[in-house]
Write a structure and sequence with these properties.
- The complex is a heterotrimer of chains A (about 260), B (about 220) and C (about 220).
- Chain A has about 260 residues and is an alpha/beta fold.
- Chain A is about 35% helix and about 25% strand.
- In chain A, β4 and β5 form a beta hairpin.
- Chain B has about 220 residues and is an all-alpha fold.
- Chain B has ten helices and no strands.
- In chain B, α2 crosses α5, α2 runs antiparallel to α9 and α5 runs antiparallel to α8.
- Chain C is mainly α and about 220 residues long.
- The longest helix of chain C is centred in the N-terminal third of the chain and has 35 residues.
- Classes of the chains: A alpha/beta (about 260), B mainly alpha (about 220), C mainly alpha (about 220).
- At the B-C interface, α3, α4, α9 and α10 of B face α3, α4, α7, α8 and α9 of C.
Chain lengths: ~260, ~220, ~220
Amino acid sequence: MAERVLEISKIYKAFGDHQVLKGVDLDLDKGDVVSIIGSSGSGKTTLLRCVNLLEEYQEGVIKIEGRVIGYSNDKDKRTRVNNKQITQDRALTGMVFQSFNLFPHLSAAENIMLALRKVQKKSKKESAEIAQHWLERVGLPDRGASFPGQLSGGQQQRVAIARAVAMNPRLMLFDEVTSALDPELINEVLDVIKSLAVDGMTMLIVTHEMRFAYEVSKKVIFMNDGVIGEQGTPDEIFKKPSSERLSAFLKNTKF
Amino acid sequence: MDYYIDYSVVWRSMSSLFYGLGIDIYMTLASVALGSLIGLVVAFALVSERKFFRVLSSTYVAIIRNVPLLIIVLFIYFGLPDAGFVFSEIPSFIFALTVYAGAYVAEVFRGGILAIPKGVGEAGMAIGMSNLQIIVFIKIPILVRSTMPALSNTYISLFKDASVAAIISVPELTFQVRKLNLETFRTIEAWSTASVFYVVACFIIAFLLRRVERRVAIPK
Amino acid sequence: MSTGFFNELWLSKMMIFRGIYMCLFVSITAIIIGTIIGIFIGLTLTYGNIFARFFARLYVDVIRGIPVLVLILTIYFVLPVVKIELSALEAGIASLAIFASAQVAEMLRGGLQNVPIGQIEGAKAVGLGFFQTFIYVSLPQALRQVLPTWVNTAVEIVKGTTLVSLIGIVEITLVMQQIIGRNFLTMQFYALAGLIYFVICFSIERTGKFVEKKVAIK
């Protein structure tokens, strides 16, 4: 029986007057790799950011491993849970950002170790070992002492991935992680993500890299104007699109 | 009157001039240290999400930046005794310069906080750090290192502002020079020496601060 | 007690107005003269030959290296000795003007040098000469960049007028001290001085921000 890691039900979110998410449902089981594609403004990044509560949403329920996060429904009144709870809930997921967001004043190894020591309260020795393990895993075994400013974009992003997975999250969230990279640096990052998928990491990936999405995903979701326009296996989406909008979108992309 | 230049009076008073300089440095260090702590707290209040903190801190900064240091000094040294708070000269001045420094340092830190990319804070949130942890382990270290150049300028300005203490008879450098001038009438010698002292002192302080800047800068 | 203050305030109102007038007179004169001198020195710093730049740099670094108070006292005491007779008022305005000129020179140099080099190259590419590039490309951008800093210097000059009370110019601070000498309401009248300075400086700041917005490049 597959364990349901993520359950998103009927999410509605607006920025002021602009409704960005108009009722989205999405489920992920353990080990699933799901890619979300779509044009800018379709709401895909916003959806991702709702899962780890970097964005608030007005309606809907998100459950991680069966537990409701973010909002509670005491006495039929929807209230945001307190900050302490949100901080704990965020540790269930790991996120990798488009602009890497490494801590510039810390070395690569220290970037990975910071949360291990301060959030998971691990010892310095243990954190250093975990950090070194993940640096090797992403292909940067001897770059632990380098600072982000001294690393290339692809290297920084791989450190960012290591930083997120080192926390042993239930679910990894990738937000267009190669969009800010020079073309020749994209593959090293995609390869790391593929190897994480092979190891069974549950992942939700927002991406523009169509071929990568085709190769790595169990399911692909096409978002359009705040709702899921179409979803299915990679073959169904990329080779046999059924909707007009999806066909038009794919025509304008490289596959 | 000064048709002959005689620096011997200056040489004879060197020890009191250096003593005065020492007092300047002491007062500046004390005010800069305390003022920087105040400025750090005020800076976070300035960018806080809570209106109460924002209003309180911006009022403090606006008032201090628009009132001359001398008035603050006179208020504390001569005025506060009316309300029962009596301070002697040097503590009064340090009090005044600390309050003054706090506002200026706060502005520098505020700029630095706003310059931290939003994503860095979000990354901290994504790995499960609490707001306080993000401020202490990520924002403050980045802040202090990136604002060092602007801070250095502020600190040097504060060192020069310490000369205002002469007006309430603190025996710092400017006071000593004035005394020398009054006693010996060697105006050119006295005041040129004052200028040299200050220019050289500022130069040395700037040099030292630049070295700190370089050591502490975020590696690129 | 506070009725005593307001009573004293009313009695002293003419003195206070004269003090405010003197503060504004000294500030505005010093700012204008200082800005003009500062522009010349700033241009020299940016475009001058190596000798001119050396002396300009020396001037700016020395003036900026000494406290305003020391500058005021130096000019007041030393100039008579070198046979330049100045009244206290003239000496006060002169020192504040010199102080301002060094600031203006440095900010103008910074503003002009910060104009992106691509702009200068673009101007050269379409055939603009040195002077034309300066007037139509560098200067407009430099002035916009420099405006907030100039407003800051203007505020510093106004605050600097407190120090000329030491050489006997009857501006706000000295007026308050004279009033306090009569009625001993120390805290109240120094607080009033602070309030007056705050109103003047804050207004200058606000006006500056307003002008900034009006001339900003969209």
